[in-house]
Amino acid sequence: MSEGDEQTAATATGREIWIEKYRPQTLDDIHGQSEIVERLQSYIAQDDVPHLLFSGPAGIGKTTAATAIAREIYGEDNWRGNFLELNASDQRGIDVVRDRIKGFARSSFGGDFRIVFLDEADSLTDDAQSALRRTMEQFSDNTRFILSCNYSSKIIDPIQSRCAVFRFSPLSDEAVGGMVREIAAAEDIEVTDEGIDALVYAADGDMRRAINSLQAAATTGDVVDEEAVYAITATARPEEIESMVTDALNGDFARARSTLDTLLTETGMAGGDVIDQLHRSVWEFELSEREAVRLMERIGEADYRIAEGANEQVQLESLLAALSLDE
């Protein structure tokens, strides 16, 4: 079966992945990163693209921006031959830097330069980063490097100083909601306003998560509503989190613990997810400043202990108990 036939079959059976189907093809199509897009377009227009370092959380457009740059420089027909993508989390050793990248950088394929895109570059070992630094110097005449990472602090300073650094921020609710509405319209899916709000809340600035959640929720029924979204994403409703915290602060530990048990066992949330939602929601609760500070302190302590391997349910119950006992 040819590639085209496979794509047609995938579409017909509903197996096409929407995050790839609706991945922006040009910089203009990228949602929510207008300032970064403007600067990147300026580099391309002036034919003066430096080494680039993209940092920020997952699902906000770093990989999409890298491929869009290649498409705009080389054109739709030629960009793949001039673009080498490596995932550093899978290929972390110094040999990858020395062999694959050097081999690609040495070869010529027309044009002024080729692009090496190194995803999750913060997973590279220090030795591999040192080798990469030297490679960036050696082939700077005919190769541009685009590095993507979650934490720029894990990239050694000699590499950072050789790159134009772009810090991608989590996408705004408006950007995520707008993209979700566009996809829903294109796929002829009925989505309620409450469903859109739930998708935006569950995504927390991650476009990829929002699109995946929409596709998953669309398979559960004719209408994507709030209930379908929270069920498919294993996300607690904001009011459930607020109710649990309020009960604990009011001294009703048993009721707060019951809500927590429901979230962990029936909703299927992980302890870390509960912590994340608590942290996101602290300042949205109608709490006094003193209560908010108490809650933040307890969240930080529970988060650290869970990260160190402690039992999630025990730590979360301990958090609620401490809130119930504090005066």
- In what range is the share of β-strand residues? 5-15%
Q: Which class of the largest domain in CATH terms?
A: Alpha Beta
Radius of gyration of CA atoms, rounded to a whole number: 23 Å
CATH architecture of the largest domain: 3-Layer(aba) Sandwich
Question: Would you list the SSEs in sequence order as H and E?
Answer: HHHEHEHEHEHEHEHHEHHHHHH
Tell me the number of structural domains.
3
Q: State the CATH superfamily name of the largest domain.
A: P-loop containing nucleotide triphosphate hydrolases
Global geometry: globular
The mean pLDDT is 87
Portion in helices: 55-70%
Q: Can you walk through the features of this model?
A:
Strand 3, helix 6 and strand 4 form a beta-alpha-beta unit. Helix 3 (34-45) packs parallel to helix 4, helix 9 (193-203) runs parallel beside helix 11 and helix 12 (238-249) packs antiparallel against helix 13 (253-265). The protein is of the alpha/beta class and 327 residues long. It is 56% helix and 9% strand. The strands form 2 sheets. The chain has a 5-stranded parallel β-sheet with strand order 2-3-4-1-5, sandwiched between helices. The protein has a two-stranded parallel sheet with strand order 6-7. It is built from 16 helices and 7 strands.
